[in-house]
Amino acid sequence: MNVLVFLVPVALLLGGFGLAAFIWALRSGQFDDPDGAAERILLDDD
User: How confident is the model at residue 34 (pLDDT cuts 50, 70, 90)?
Assistant: First the structure.
């Protein structure tokens, strides 16, 4: 039971880091072109 005192804050901290990384990716434009790669495979670049 004592290990939960350590593991719960660590899990919350890691979840917060993951959420912060996701929000940073959204704001920096990482997800702006979701269809670009799908359409790029159809183009013929000779």
Answer: confident
| CA pair distance 18, 12, nearest whole angstrom | 10
Output DSSP code: residue 32: S
On whether the CB atoms of residues 31 and 25 are closer than 8 A, the answer is yes
Q: Rounded to an integer, what is the distance from CA 11 to the centroid of its chain?
A: 17
pTM, entire model: 0.66
Please state the rounded mean pLDDT for residues 7-35: 93
Q: What tokens appear for 25 in the block?
A: 């990716």
